[in-house]
Design goal:
Residues 60-73 have a biased composition (Polar residues). By secondary structure, this protein is mainly beta. The protein has helices spanning 157-164, 198-201, 347-360, 397-401, 420-427; strands spanning 63-66, 106-109, 115-118, 128-130, 168-175, 178-188, 193-196, 206-210, 216-225, 230-235, 246-247, 258-263, 271-288, 294-302, 314-317, 321-331, 342-346, 364-367, 370-379, 382-392, 408-412, 415-416, 435-442, 445-452, 454-457. The radius of gyration is 21 Å and the shape is globular.
Length: 461
């Protein structure tokens, strides 16, 4: 198994945001780069990027990473980080690379949390998904307009940026492992709630949030969900003039649609980049190094520039609505920056999880109860790739529905399943108690199986 072990350029150390007043903090820190520590004589130089050690399991020569500051591994890691953790009870993760495929690492663009990435097409554990009820957060449909288009009908990005930038924040995180940074979006101005990625704040002992006008506030974690890589923070002594973002919906997005990302890449806060949606439902899998929790998302793929430090920041449509939370990028291995392959968690998933975190401090997940791998199968003269069931856990929804070892799931409701991660990502879009229809190939014959998803509290939440 290969490791991402490429040397990275250093940079000039920046002032500590926790010991400096807001006015003394430079506008362009480099949170995506680890703070440099004195080298100990006789020991090799430390490379903090190596705390992101992707597990290669994909047929593509690209490296996937989370866009945030990586922890400084020259300091002691917090208890439970790195090699500790283990797979949550009742799950068996399969991280082997599919036979006959080249391996690809995933690199996360996040903060002090150390995350290892697993190829999107690799195996996955018992399929989990979020339990979505009626969200307490307000989402608007695509027809609702926050920012009107230009007179010629094209996106008015200048107007969108002016409207939405006050709702985007920069996040600094300090832990035993070092100092890191990422981005976030204000989702409730009255309560001071900020939505970001779990890997931006995981293990943090101190958190500071910087508003778009430079004001800084301490923050506390309201709740985290490792299974979806989401977290909610609350500003302490928040001002009464916070600007919250308008949450859109992600169910009607289209490939080719204009988008804008706003965040804190390389410490350059309130940076705006634009592009288009390159693909939808792109399976992206990563592994949380602390909990060993598999994070699988059918993500929004974009070509807008996403770089280390963007993790947790919002992705907007041309109307100024949040449609996703940027969380990872792909690189070619020659650099850790953007090559036009960025990924965002769809806002429908993010809003449901955020509402649970605000209400309960944790998120509940439903599951099928199977161990999966990728498999190519033929039926009715058609050959395709699906999610093969390696094991059915007794007493789970999958067992109760009659799913069997050896079944290959090729469709869930109306969505084609391209592999294990694809199925996991789709299941996460359903709620506990929902019934889904799985199309499976069993002994060369295609049949359908109805499954009612059940809930359990995620061990890592």
């Amino acid at each position: 198994m290969n490791e991402y072990d490429r040397d990275q350029p250093g940079h000039t150390p920046q002032p500590d945001p926790y010991s400096q007043p807001a006015a003394q903090i430079p506008a362009a820190q480099h949170p995506a780069m680890p703070q440099q520590q004195p080298q100990i004589p006789g020991q090799p130089a430390q490379h903090p990027w190596r705390s992101h050690e992707p597990h290669f399991a994909s047929p593509n020569p690209y490296t996937w990473q989370h866009p945030t500051h990586t922890a400084d591994t020259s300091r002691p890691a917090p208890l439970g980080a790195g090699e500790g953790g283990g797979t949550p009870p009742g799950e068996t993760a399969r991280n082997e690379a599919p036979r006959g495929k080249r391996q690809r690492p995933w690199l996360m663009v996040g903060t002090a949390a150390t995350l290892a990435a697993v190829l999107a097409s690799g195996g996955t554990a018992a399929v989990l998904q979020n339990t979505q009820g009626d969200s307490g957060l307000t989402q608007v449909t695509s027809s609702g307009t926050t920012v009107a288009p230009a007179s010629d009908g094209r996106a008015d990005w200048q107007a969108v940026a002016e409207t939405v930038r006050p709702s985007v924040v920069a996040i600094s995180a300090r832990s035993q492992a070092g100092q890191g940074a990422g981005s976030g979006v204000i989702i409730d101005a009255g309560s001071g709630y900020v939505l970001t990625n779990n890997h931006v704040v995981e293990g943090a002992q101190q958190l500071a949030v910087t508003l778009s006008d430079g004001r800084m506030y301490a923050a506390e974690i309201v709740g985290t969900d490792a299974a979806t890589d989401l977290a909610v923070l609350q500003l302490q002594d928040a001002p009464d003039d916070l600007v919250e973002a308008t949450l859109g919906t992600s169910g009607e997005l289209a490939v080719g649609q204009d988008v804008m990302a706003v965040g804190n890449p390389l410490g350059l806060d309130s940076t705006v980049t634009t592009g288009i949606i390159s693909a939808l439902d792109r399976p992206v899998s990563t592994t949380d190094q602390s909990s060993r929790q598999m994070v699988v998302t059918n993500a929004i793929q974009i070509d807008a520039a996403i770089n280390p430090g963007n993790s947790g920041g919002p992705l907007f449509d041309s109307a100024g609505h949040v449609i996703g939370i940027t969380s990872s990028i792909a690189t070619d291995g020659a650099s850790s920056g953007s090559i036009g392959l960025g990924f965002a968690i769809p806002v429908d998933l993010a809003a449901g999880i955020a509402d649970q975190l605000v209400t309960d401090g944790s998120a509940e997940h439903a599951y099928l109860g199977v161990t999966l791998s990728d498999e190519t199968v033929s039926s009715g003269g058609v050959t395709r790739t699906g999610a093969a069931i390696e094991q059915v856990v007794e007493g789970t929804p999958a067992a109760q529905a009659g799913l069997q070892q050896g079944d290959v799931i090729v469709q869930i409701d109306d969505d084609a399943v391209g592999g294990a991660s694809s199925l996991t990502g789709y299941v996460r879009t359903y709620g506990s108690g929902d019934s889904v229809t799985l199309t499976v190939v069993r002994d060369g014959q295609t049949e359908t199986v109805d499954v009612t998803l059940a809930a359990r509290e995620d061990a890592a939440a």
